[in-house]
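Agenda item 2: magnesium ion complex prediction
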Amino acid sequence: MKVFIIGGFLGSGKTTTVLKLIKKMAADNKRVALIVNEVGEVGIDGNALEVAGIPSKEITNGCICCSLIYSLKVTVSELADIYKPDILIMEPTGLSFPSQIRDELLGMNVMMSFAPIITLVDVSRFTAEMNQIPKFVEQQLREADVIGINKTDLAGEEKIQSVETFLKDMNPDAYQIRMSAKENESVDKLYRLMMTEGETVFNPIDAGGAEAKSKVTERTNSIEVSNISACSGLYHAGGKLSVKDAGALLEGIVTAAGMEITKLNPSFVGHIKMTVKVEDTLIKVSQTAGPDDRLIEAEYIPQEKIENGGKYELRFLAAVTNVKKAALEDIVNDSVSVFLSEKNLAFEKQVLESDSKKPILL
Ligand SMILES: Nc1nc2c(ncn2[C@@H]2O[C@H](COP(=O)(O)OP(=O)(O)O)[C@@H](O)[C@H]2O)c(=O)[nH]1
Ligand SMILES: [Mg+2]
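Presented output:
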């Protein structure tokens, strides 16, 4: 079993890349399994990834490189035993340090090898991230084998080169690859790079083998280092909603929440995401935030048709820098209520057991 770990900060393009990689692997007749980790109690990206129709497990409410390492090990063992995949892909949260995950897995009694660890960077927002959370970004990138300089379609040549030079200085050993996760050619290039063994630019590590060496310089709780608050939630709504209306609704909520968060921290970086499934479409609206432009994007992902019967599940995750968790929760709850009431949708927030017992973070 070969393990692919696709790391990178919130909104850097991990899920987009994973979806494309899975399609490539399926076309290559590989048996693939997937583990998605979300920082909130409510999973979001697992839903988007269901479309690929491969066995996937979602580990929520924390980070698999810190508090959830035990859950991760159990999940890896189960998937390896039951499904025996050729490839296991992991998408950790944007707040994790992927090398710490590899370190922990190396000690397990499961035969596996590792593709080089890839850490994605949103090149258009890198400077903003460095300004807000320099220590976190540095630790995440210092341990990468391959740095995917992503979203090159959103930045000019000069900007891309300056980020490349900066990162070369920070992590001279990492192999850098320019990409745009939305384009197939980029993901093809990445896939070839990760499947190639014996490349001189990096050394895939054999689990438990003599050459297994740690890149982790300092074991830390990544969430504490990140200075990010996160909150997630699940709303049950009832009424009449078309795919188009649902897209507009989610965009409204995400935009409003982003504007309120800006009032508390004008320079925040992070991610606000919402999903809802209507008929045969999963609608995912993300706001990937940088201080200069807050890009909001709606994706319409085809899925197996379900009979909603006028009942919908809206999921959200907000994770941003330097805003108190309680304030963030209020903002998201208020934005959701205002927009759902406006549309005359009855709704109820599901109280998750973990809400009362363990706070997600910070
Ligand atoms: N323009 C552009 N947008 C991208 C690219 N990769 C991802 N995105 C968008 O960035 C947002 C966050 O992507 P996602 O894959 O969910 O990031 P994750 O949080 O790292 O899993 C989504 O709106 C994506 O469509 C890219 O290469 N170019
Ligand atoms: Mg994701």
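Discussion summary: The mean pLDDT is 83.
Owner for follow-up: CH.
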